[in-house]
Amino acid sequence: MDADPAYARQIVAKLQEWKEDYDRWDNTVAAGYGYNVAEHQAGKSYVFDLDENGDVRNCTVTGSGRITGPTEEELRQFKAEQAKKRMRRVKYIKILQEGTEKRKRQQQENLLFYQSQYVKHELFVSQQNLSDSKRTS
């Protein structure tokens, strides 16, 4: 490449084109995760493996080694949202329990009503049978 500067420029142009395509994709992914794209790109290193034509055969991209995570504000917001979710769950569970208890009471009332109606019916039938038996005797 030292002997042929034109060839070196071609190789560098291919590398720049590859890097622009890669960075476009990488920035889109980073933005999708909510990262600051400029900070995400800072400190990146590229190791290229080129074929005999100077095309990128393989590339390894490394970051700055920093571990990025949510900010304090994002953590507070996340915890607040989780607390709201817990409160909604507790409220929902209470509603379910109240509904279950109400259905259980209603079933017990229905059973008592049915039993009382059954007893009344049996008394009525037995009285009818007694009166029928008295008429036939």
Which characteristics define this entry?
single chain, 137 residues, mainly alpha, two-stranded antiparallel ribbon, 2 strands, 72% helix, rod-shaped
Query: How widely separated are the two ends?
Result: 131 Å
What oligomeric arrangement do these chains adopt? single chain
Structural class: mainly alpha
**Beta-strand percent range:** 5-15%
Radius of gyration: 40 Å
Task: Describe the protein's architecture and organization.
The protein is mainly alpha-helical. It contains three helices and two strands; from the N terminus they run ααββα. Strands 1-2 form a two-stranded antiparallel sheet. Strand 1 and strand 2 form a beta hairpin. The model has no long low-confidence stretch (mean pLDDT 86).
Care to give the gist of this entry?
By secondary structure, this protein is mainly alpha-helical.
